[in-house]
Amino acid sequence: MAPPSHCHATNGGGAPQNNGAIAVDTPVMTECARLLDADEFRRHGHLVVDFIADYYAGLGEYPVHPTVSPGFLRHHLTAEPPSRREPDAFAAALHDVRDVILPGLTHWQSPRHFAHFPASSSTVGALGEALAAGINVVPFTWAASPSATELEMVVVDWLGKALHLPEKMLFSGGGGGTILGTTCEAILCALVAARDRKLAEIGEERIGDLVVYCSDQTHFAFCKAARIAGIRRDHCREIPTYRDDTFALSPTELHAAMQADVDADLVPLFLCATIGTTKTTAVDPVGELCAVAAPYGAWVHVDAAYAGSALVCPEFRGVIAGVEAADSFSMNAHKWLLANNDCCVMWVRTPLALVAALGTEQEYILKDAAAEAQGDGGGVVDYKDWGMTLTRRFRALKVWLVLRCYGVEGLREHVRSHVRMAAAFEWSEPTRGSRW
Fold first, then answer.
1. Could you give the domains of the chain?
2. Which one of 92, 137, 195, 305 has the lowest number of neighbouring Cβ atoms within 10 Å?
3. Proportion of the chain above pLDDT 90, given as a percent
C-alpha cells in the first residue's frame, strides 16, 4: 500500500521533450504523497474495522426501517463541500456516519429484516470486499491483471461444481462463466447475445419481429432488459400462471404462445425461466420448457438469482432437472452464499455467443501481445467481452475467500440451517393470543 516517497513537478523553463510531454525534473513534496500512506491507512483501517464490529454488535438495537422524511440528510449536511482538509477529518466523518447516516438506513443485515430478499453477508465476505478495494485492480483484460482473470475462471468453475451445474457450462467443459454485479446485467447480456445470434440468421431488419417470453411471476428486470435490447414493449409475453400449478410457467401455455407468434410471422427469441420467483418463490420446470423452446431456436436463460444458492445441497438439485439444455444460467451469491453485495455469477454454454455480441472492436490499446503471439489466444479470456462494462471489479477475490474459508460443506450447512428454520416456522402453531 505504500506510495512512492515523493511526487515530481517541473521547475519551469526548457523546451518540451518527448513529443510535447512536460519535462519532469524537480522532486516536490505534495499532498499526493499521502494518498496511499501505509501508516495512515493502518490507523484509519483500525477505526473502520472497530466501527463495523461495533455496528454488528449493536445491529439488533436499530429500527429495521428508518422513520425519516425526504430531504432529512441534506438538512443535516452542509450545502458546500469542504474546501480544505479538516483536522482529524476521517474520525470526524465516521462520527457523522454513526450519528447522521446510520439512522437513515434500512439495516439489511438486521436479524429482524425480513423484506426484499436475503442480504447475505459474512466476515470473510466483507474482508474480501475490503481486500479487493484496497488492491483496486481493473481486470478488463487478461493482460490488465492476469491473476484476477484466472482467479475468476477458477472460481466460477469451483462454484459451478458446488452448485451441480452441467459440465458443459463450465470452462472445463467448453462453456464458461463470469462474475457480474446483478441479475439485471446477466439477463441483459444473455439477451443481447441471443438477439445478435438470431439476427445473424434472419437479418437485422427483422429486429421488430423478435419476441421474448416469461411468466407473470418473472422479475420485472426481464422486460426492462428486453426494452434496452431493442425488443418492442408489446413483444414481451408474460404468460399467466396459476395457483394450482404453484405459479410455475406451464410448458403447454408457452408452446401455445410461441406457436401463435410463429403463425403471425413473428420470431420467438428468448425464454427466461426462473428458479425462485420474487413474488412467490415459484420454480419453473426447466427441462420441459427447454424442450418446448428448442424447435423454435429460442435461447433459454435460467434466472436462479433467489433460490440458486440452494443447489449446493444435492437434495435440491432436482429443481433444475433438464438444465443441461439451457443456454445460460445465473444466480446471486450475495443472496445466500455469504458473499457481500454485489455478486451475480453467470454461466453460458457458448461463450463465443457472448463475445460476438459484447466484444469490442478497434481495441489495439487493449490487445495482449503475448496472447496474440500464441495465435488462437492460448485460452486467454478478456472479461470486457463477457459483459456490458469495460471497467470491472475484482469480485472473484471475495468469492474465492468465501469458498476457501467456509468450504462447500460449510455453505451447505448454512443453507440447510435456514431450511430447517423455515420448516419449523411452517409446522409450528402460534400460541393463542401471541403476536406474530
1. 129-362+381-411 (3.40.640.10)
2. 92
3. 68
